[in-house]
Amino acid sequence: MSHEQWTAVDRYFTDLLVPSDPALDAALEANAAAGLPPIDVTPNQGKLLHLLARIQGARTILEIGTLGGYSTIWLARALPAGGRLITLESAPKHAEVARANIERAGLSDIVEIRLGQALDTLSQLDAEEQGPFDLIFIDADKPNNPEYFKWALKLSRRGTMIIADNVVRKGVVIDEASTDPNIQGIRRFNELLAAEPRVSATAIQTVGSKGYDGFAIILVTESNDSLS
Prior knowledge:
Elements: H1 3-17, H2 22-33, H3 43-56, E1 60-64, H4 70-76, E2 84-89, H5 92-104, E3 111-115, H6 118-127, E4 135-138, H7 145-154, E5 161-165, H8 181-195, E6 199-208, E7 211-220
Parallel strand pairs: 1-2, 1-4, 2-3, 4-5
Antiparallel strand pairs: 5-7, 6-7
Helix pairs in contact: 2-5, 3-4, 6-7, 7-8
Protein backbone atom coordinates (compact mmCIF):
# COMPACT_ATOMS: atom_id res chain seq x y z
CA MET A 1 0.00 0.00 0.00
CA SER A 2 1.14 3.54 -0.74
CA HIS A 3 0.91 6.92 0.93
CA GLU A 4 -1.49 7.92 -1.86
CA GLN A 5 -3.81 5.07 -0.93
CA TRP A 6 -3.65 5.91 2.79
CA THR A 7 -4.51 9.50 1.93
CA ALA A 8 -7.43 8.40 -0.23
CA VAL A 9 -8.77 6.22 2.60
CA ASP A 10 -8.40 9.16 5.01
CA ARG A 11 -10.39 11.31 2.60
CA TYR A 12 -13.06 8.60 2.26
CA PHE A 13 -13.65 8.36 6.02
CA THR A 14 -13.35 12.10 6.55
CA ASP A 15 -15.94 12.80 3.86
CA LEU A 16 -18.30 10.24 5.41
CA LEU A 17 -17.80 10.81 9.13
CA VAL A 18 -16.17 14.22 9.66
CA PRO A 19 -18.24 16.85 7.84
CA SER A 20 -16.61 20.11 6.85
CA ASP A 21 -16.67 22.61 9.71
CA PRO A 22 -16.18 26.36 9.12
CA ALA A 23 -14.16 27.03 12.29
CA LEU A 24 -11.89 24.03 11.87
CA ASP A 25 -11.39 24.69 8.15
CA ALA A 26 -10.61 28.33 8.86
CA ALA A 27 -8.08 27.30 11.52
CA LEU A 28 -6.15 25.16 9.05
CA GLU A 29 -6.27 27.94 6.46
CA ALA A 30 -5.03 30.50 9.00
CA ASN A 31 -2.24 28.18 10.10
CA ALA A 32 -1.08 27.73 6.52
CA ALA A 33 -1.32 31.47 5.79
CA ALA A 34 0.82 32.20 8.85
CA GLY A 35 3.47 29.70 7.75
CA LEU A 36 2.96 27.30 10.64
CA PRO A 37 4.31 23.79 9.97
CA PRO A 38 1.59 21.48 8.57
CA ILE A 39 1.80 19.03 11.47
CA ASP A 40 -1.71 19.31 12.90
CA VAL A 41 -3.61 16.12 13.55
CA THR A 42 -5.76 15.07 10.62
CA PRO A 43 -9.53 15.70 10.73
CA ASN A 44 -10.30 12.07 11.55
CA GLN A 45 -7.62 12.08 14.26
CA GLY A 46 -9.09 15.30 15.64
CA LYS A 47 -12.46 13.58 15.75
CA LEU A 48 -10.83 10.64 17.55
CA LEU A 49 -9.46 12.99 20.23
CA HIS A 50 -12.89 14.60 20.52
CA LEU A 51 -14.60 11.24 20.97
CA LEU A 52 -12.04 10.01 23.49
CA ALA A 53 -12.54 13.17 25.54
CA ARG A 54 -16.31 12.65 25.47
CA ILE A 55 -16.03 8.96 26.32
CA GLN A 56 -13.75 9.95 29.20
CA GLY A 57 -16.34 12.46 30.38
CA ALA A 58 -13.53 15.00 30.65
CA ARG A 59 -14.33 18.30 32.34
CA THR A 60 -10.71 19.46 32.52
CA ILE A 61 -8.18 19.00 29.72
CA LEU A 62 -4.49 19.86 29.50
CA GLU A 63 -2.85 20.06 26.09
CA ILE A 64 0.95 20.20 25.84
CA GLY A 65 1.68 21.76 22.44
CA THR A 66 -0.89 24.10 20.88
CA LEU A 67 0.52 24.91 17.42
CA GLY A 68 -2.37 26.77 15.75
CA GLY A 69 -5.10 25.41 17.98
CA TYR A 70 -6.65 22.89 15.59
CA SER A 71 -6.53 19.96 18.03
CA THR A 72 -7.39 22.42 20.81
CA ILE A 73 -10.70 23.20 19.13
CA TRP A 74 -11.52 19.51 18.72
CA LEU A 75 -10.79 18.82 22.38
CA ALA A 76 -12.50 21.94 23.74
CA ARG A 77 -15.70 21.12 21.86
CA ALA A 78 -15.89 17.85 23.81
CA LEU A 79 -16.14 19.68 27.13
CA PRO A 80 -19.47 19.98 28.95
CA ALA A 81 -20.81 23.26 30.32
CA GLY A 82 -18.37 24.54 32.92
CA GLY A 83 -15.43 22.61 31.45
CA ARG A 84 -12.04 24.16 30.86
CA LEU A 85 -8.96 23.50 28.76
CA ILE A 86 -5.43 24.79 29.30
CA THR A 87 -3.05 24.55 26.35
CA LEU A 88 0.70 25.21 26.48
CA GLU A 89 2.66 26.81 23.62
CA SER A 90 6.25 28.05 23.55
CA ALA A 91 6.19 30.01 20.27
CA PRO A 92 4.55 33.47 20.44
CA LYS A 93 3.57 33.39 16.76
CA HIS A 94 1.88 30.01 17.13
CA ALA A 95 0.03 31.20 20.23
CA GLU A 96 -1.16 34.34 18.42
CA VAL A 97 -2.56 32.31 15.53
CA ALA A 98 -4.13 29.81 17.92
CA ARG A 99 -5.76 32.56 19.97
CA ALA A 100 -7.46 33.94 16.85
CA ASN A 101 -8.56 30.47 15.74
CA ILE A 102 -9.98 29.66 19.17
CA GLU A 103 -11.81 32.99 19.34
CA ARG A 104 -13.30 32.41 15.86
CA ALA A 105 -14.54 29.03 17.09
CA GLY A 106 -16.28 30.72 20.04
CA LEU A 107 -14.16 28.93 22.63
CA SER A 108 -12.17 31.76 24.22
CA ASP A 109 -14.18 31.54 27.44
CA ILE A 110 -13.16 27.95 28.12
CA VAL A 111 -9.66 27.76 26.57
CA GLU A 112 -6.62 29.33 28.20
CA ILE A 113 -3.35 29.53 26.27
CA ARG A 114 -0.23 29.57 28.46
CA LEU A 115 2.78 31.00 26.61
CA GLY A 116 6.24 29.79 27.58
CA GLN A 117 8.43 26.72 27.69
CA ALA A 118 6.17 23.84 28.67
CA LEU A 119 8.43 22.58 31.44
CA ASP A 120 8.17 26.01 33.06
CA THR A 121 4.43 26.36 32.59
CA LEU A 122 3.82 22.81 33.84
CA SER A 123 5.67 23.72 37.01
CA GLN A 124 3.50 26.84 37.32
CA LEU A 125 0.31 24.81 36.89
CA ASP A 126 1.45 22.50 39.66
CA ALA A 127 2.26 25.44 41.93
CA GLU A 128 -1.20 26.88 41.22
CA GLU A 129 -2.78 23.50 42.02
CA GLN A 130 -4.52 23.49 38.66
CA GLY A 131 -4.74 19.71 38.48
CA PRO A 132 -5.73 17.02 38.43
CA PHE A 133 -6.85 16.99 34.81
CA ASP A 134 -9.22 14.41 33.37
CA LEU A 135 -7.43 14.18 30.01
CA ILE A 136 -3.93 15.23 28.99
CA PHE A 137 -2.78 15.37 25.35
CA ILE A 138 0.99 15.44 24.74
CA ASP A 139 1.95 16.72 21.29
CA ALA A 140 5.01 18.94 21.62
CA ASP A 141 8.78 18.64 21.13
CA LYS A 142 9.64 14.96 21.33
CA PRO A 143 13.02 15.14 23.14
CA ASN A 144 11.14 16.40 26.20
CA ASN A 145 8.42 13.73 26.07
CA PRO A 146 9.85 11.86 29.09
CA GLU A 147 9.60 15.02 31.21
CA TYR A 148 6.14 15.82 29.87
CA PHE A 149 5.01 12.35 30.86
CA LYS A 150 6.37 12.80 34.38
CA TRP A 151 4.49 16.08 34.70
CA ALA A 152 1.35 14.55 33.21
CA LEU A 153 1.42 11.90 35.94
CA LYS A 154 1.89 14.55 38.59
CA LEU A 155 -1.11 16.49 37.24
CA SER A 156 -3.31 13.38 36.98
CA ARG A 157 -5.68 11.44 39.17
CA ARG A 158 -6.75 7.82 39.14
CA GLY A 159 -8.77 7.52 35.94
CA THR A 160 -7.03 10.28 33.99
CA MET A 161 -6.43 9.51 30.33
CA ILE A 162 -3.10 10.57 28.80
CA ILE A 163 -2.66 10.54 25.02
CA ALA A 164 0.71 11.06 23.32
CA ASP A 165 1.03 11.65 19.58
CA ASN A 166 3.84 10.72 17.18
CA VAL A 167 5.19 7.70 19.06
CA VAL A 168 6.01 5.62 15.95
CA ARG A 169 7.96 8.13 13.81
CA LYS A 170 7.63 6.21 10.53
CA GLY A 171 8.77 3.07 12.35
CA VAL A 172 12.17 4.49 13.27
CA VAL A 173 11.22 4.23 16.95
CA ILE A 174 12.55 0.67 16.93
CA ASP A 175 16.06 1.85 15.97
CA GLU A 176 17.84 1.96 19.31
CA ALA A 177 21.01 3.27 17.60
CA SER A 178 19.27 6.31 16.13
CA THR A 179 20.97 9.61 16.94
CA ASP A 180 17.82 11.60 16.19
CA PRO A 181 16.86 13.38 19.45
CA ASN A 182 13.19 12.99 18.53
CA ILE A 183 13.56 9.21 18.31
CA GLN A 184 15.57 9.03 21.50
CA GLY A 185 12.99 11.18 23.30
CA ILE A 186 10.16 8.90 22.20
CA ARG A 187 12.13 5.77 23.14
CA ARG A 188 12.83 7.12 26.63
CA PHE A 189 9.16 8.03 26.95
CA ASN A 190 8.13 4.51 25.94
CA GLU A 191 10.58 2.97 28.41
CA LEU A 192 9.26 5.17 31.23
CA LEU A 193 5.74 4.18 30.27
CA ALA A 194 6.61 0.48 30.38
CA ALA A 195 8.22 0.81 33.81
CA GLU A 196 5.53 2.96 35.42
CA PRO A 197 3.33 0.89 37.79
CA ARG A 198 0.66 3.58 38.09
CA VAL A 199 -0.54 3.31 34.50
CA SER A 200 -1.91 0.85 31.98
CA ALA A 201 -1.02 1.70 28.40
CA THR A 202 -0.87 0.63 24.80
CA ALA A 203 0.25 2.14 21.51
CA ILE A 204 -1.46 2.02 18.14
CA GLN A 205 0.12 2.51 14.74
CA THR A 206 -1.63 4.84 12.31
CA VAL A 207 -1.34 5.44 8.59
CA GLY A 208 -2.99 8.22 6.62
CA SER A 209 -2.50 11.53 4.89
CA LYS A 210 0.23 12.50 7.40
CA GLY A 211 2.12 9.25 6.81
CA TYR A 212 3.02 6.46 9.25
CA ASP A 213 2.94 7.21 12.96
CA GLY A 214 0.91 6.39 16.06
CA PHE A 215 -0.56 7.27 19.44
CA ALA A 216 0.12 6.04 22.96
CA ILE A 217 -3.05 5.78 25.04
CA ILE A 218 -2.55 5.66 28.78
CA LEU A 219 -4.90 5.19 31.71
CA VAL A 220 -3.72 6.30 35.14
CA THR A 221 -4.72 3.42 37.43
CA GLU A 222 -3.32 4.64 40.74
CA SER A 223 -3.30 8.06 42.32
CA ASN A 224 -0.08 9.98 42.88
CA ASP A 225 -0.31 9.27 46.61
CA SER A 226 -0.64 5.50 46.25
CA LEU A 227 3.09 4.85 45.86
CA SER A 228 4.38 7.57 48.15
